[in-house]
Amino acid sequence: MQKEISQPTVWPDYLDELWAKSPEPGQTIGESLAMHTWLVLSRFADVVHLRPQLPKQVDCPALWHILYWACFLHDFGKAASGFQNVLRGGAKWGHRHEVLSLAFLDWLFPPEPANETRLWIAAAMVSHHRDAEEIRTLYPETSDPADDPLRPLLQQISVEVLCGLWRWLEECVSPWQRALHLENCGIEFPSLVAPDAAVPLFYQHGVENVRHTLRRYHRFVRQLESSDDWRQIIGTLLLRGSIIQADHTASAHLRHLPKLELQSPDALRQSCGIGADQLHPHQQQCLQAEQSTILIAPTGSGKTESALFWAAAVAREQNDMPRLFYVLPFQASMNAMSLRLESSFPKMVGLQHSRSVLAVYRQLLEREYTPQAAAKAALWSKNLARLNYFPVRVLSPYQILKACYRLKGYEALWQDYFNAAFIFDEIHAYEPERLAMILGLMRFLREHFAAKFFVMSATLPSLLKTRLEQALAGVATISASAATFEKFRRHHLGLLEGEALDPIWLDRIAQHGREGMSVLACCNTVKRAQQVYREMRQRLAGAGVDVVLLHGRFNGRDRLRKENLVRLATGSKSEQRCPIVLVATQVIEVSLDIDLDVLYSDPAPLEALIQRFGRINRRRLRASADVFVFREPNDGQRIYDAELIQRGLAILDRHNDLPIDEEQISDWLTLFGAVLFSTVVAIATAATAAARSSRAP
Fold this sequence. Notes:
Elements: H1 33-50, H2 54-57, H3 63-73, H4 81-87, H5 97-101, H6 116-126, H7 132-138, H8 150-154, H9 159-179, H10 195-225, H11 230-251, H12 265-271, H13 281-286, E1 293-296, H14 303-318, E2 324-327, H15 331-342, E3 349-352, H16 356-366, H17 371-386, E4 392-395, H18 397-401, H19 410-417, E5 421-425, H20 432-448, E6 452-457, H21 462-471, E7 476-479, H22 482-487, E8 491-496, H23 503-514, E9 519-522, H24 526-539, E10 546-550, H25 556-570, E11 580-584, E12 598-601, H26 606-613, E13 625-630, H27 642-653, H28 665-676, H29 680-692
Parallel strand pairs: 1-6, 1-7, 2-4, 2-5, 3-4, 5-6, 8-13, 9-11, 9-12, 10-11, 12-13
Helix pairs in contact: 1-3, 1-11, 3-6, 3-11, 6-10, 6-11, 11-19, 12-14, 16-17, 20-21, 20-29, 23-24, 27-28
């Protein structure tokens, strides 16, 4: 369990008038420089405790030493009178405090040419807010040292303040390290310059030493931009990512960065309510897996539990799993999974997608939060996720890919991925180009960030499996047994002539509803779904059967209400199940844990149809349930490629009027995917190159 860090007994109260932050609304006193520095160091200590083996893994033994001093010194430049005036409502200052902070390095680390530690500390300090190019633009080289804008900047720190800062270093460095439980992390304490020499050194040589440091820093950045030394590149990414993480979470006043505390595999199994004798063979194998793994198992056979068993086994093997990422392709899937994981990891699950605030807001309303409290909590949850606070994250791969494109704060993302575990669900759902990018990202994280992966699917074409094996070298494959696939054989396929809007089929769907069956009618477009819905309402008027329309164009409130209604009527674990005719679009392919009796579907690509089949007879209460697919319209309806529709129908034709063998579905997709996945290899190479382009700025 992570230790709670309390404020140390040795405190520089003589610096209380030196602020780092302006007062909060309604307050008159700002946060002191000492307090902010203590909070940054506390969050840095969390980073150390999350990944204690990181310096050894990246072959940078001095990493924690460098970061400790960078965190301690990074805001000393805020002592300038101009900056202090800004915090008290004064005019804009126009300088960078992190550049001025470099002048204090000389008190501890003399500017010797071969002192690489000093260079790395300086790089972390000067880059914790602005990229190198911005610093270069603000502080260009000057031909006349007498006109250097840094000279009057140093004069903004008085002798009295300098003496207080020196005393702070002399009195607090060692006690604070002990208070943070960082005694055995390789942090060294260089000799502090003598008190009678500190002030003259600052005023007389500060400008010269800052300029020298900036020149070395800019050369260092240029070297990194053209370097192929991945040890150095990864080291600097982690360096800047760690100080950004510590600084931002400290500014948000987070009390700590929680570490994922995974139960043992057996304890996790028990918490999932699964007895040892109830495990499927593939789940038993996942309990023992200790490496990246591909799982192929039928829908409903406990793949999510299998993934958590794998994560627990990996955490046990490496004695460390700071972060767990659950990756899904669709927002609806993510929303549902975040709720599901919250029961296993209370208050530890973060949801990240473009509409996550709205999703969390709805979830909180269901827990009887007031609208005001729900809105505030949802926004705070988004901020926590952005700060990489949550140890379990449910997100799309595009959130992870942000790091490859060097979006703001990308180094903190890379830092958070180190030693992490990634669960990829529904990986078959991505388009080839996007899938290629994901494969390239997987390879990059595996090669350089010690990440491990669990990829699961009920249907995995052999070509995609081959590409995964190449990206995840040494990956294990776990497949459900033939007996398990046989046990989950639950569908009977039927191809129907014509289309869903033909009166004969509309009458038949309505008749199923009158007979007390739950029916899913799945259309490819909203317009067709609306037409089928109107026909069902007419045919079932007065029959006492609920007819529900569900598609992606409803506003958030209405869609949530409809999804809840569908869950109550058809949820596999609902105690209020009742007959329903559900008319839906592709939104039904994911997220909802529902179980209906019969399916009528527009023709669609094969992998989409298989997802629709998975919503039928999920609990296997019937020996077999009918899943009907119409032969028309077979032109893709401007939603899908016509060739994919026709290719899928041709494969289904070979199995028409037969039970669906779950074990053979991957073979169907392999035949189907010869065209679909043909571009993956070339694009994956390009995507890997894009991922490799990330550099510390």
